[in-house]
Amino acid sequence: MSYIKGIDVLPQELLDLIQNYVDGEYIYIPRKECNRKFWGETTRSKRGTSIRNADIYKKYKEGVSTKVLSEMYYLSQKSIQKIIFEMKKVNE
């Protein structure tokens, strides 16, 4: 997320009004509910995580222990267990 200057996008009257509340400070203006995007929607993160989780589950089914998986993927054993549990639900 990058910052834009209020003076470049807001009418002067609105800028003056906002300065009555927040003068020279950063302010976050959230997206409208209808414009919100789900996590990973604009990047490849979600797809990458799904592929990783499927790989973890496949290796688990092949007999690789959660301890070894946690070392392979740099995740805690608890995280590996959660991934396996979720993948079991999806694949049943």
Architecture overview:
- Helix content is 59%, strand content 0%.
- The chain has a single domain (6-91), classed as Arc Repressor Mutant, subunit A.
- The protein has helices at 6-9, 12-21, 45-61, 66-73, 77-91.
- The chain has 92 residues and is mainly alpha-helical.
Compact overview of the structure:
The protein is 59% helix and 0% strand. The protein is elongated. It contains five helices and no strands.
Q: What number of domains? A: 1
- Rg estimate, integer Å: 22 Å
Number of strands: 0
Might you state the CATH topology name?
Arc Repressor Mutant, subunit A
The span between the termini is: 39 Å
Number of helices: 5
Low-confidence stretches: none
Nearest-integer average pLDDT: 90
Per CATH, which architecture?
Orthogonal Bundle
Categorize the overall geometry: elongated
* Share of β-strand residues: under 5%
Counting helices, strands and paired strands, the structural category is mainly alpha
Main β-sheet description: none
The succession of helices and strands, N to C, reads HHHHH
Organism: Anaerocolumna sedimenticola
Protein name: Mor transcription activator domain-containing protein
InterPro entries: c-mor_Regulatory_Protein, Homeodomain-like_sf, YraL-like
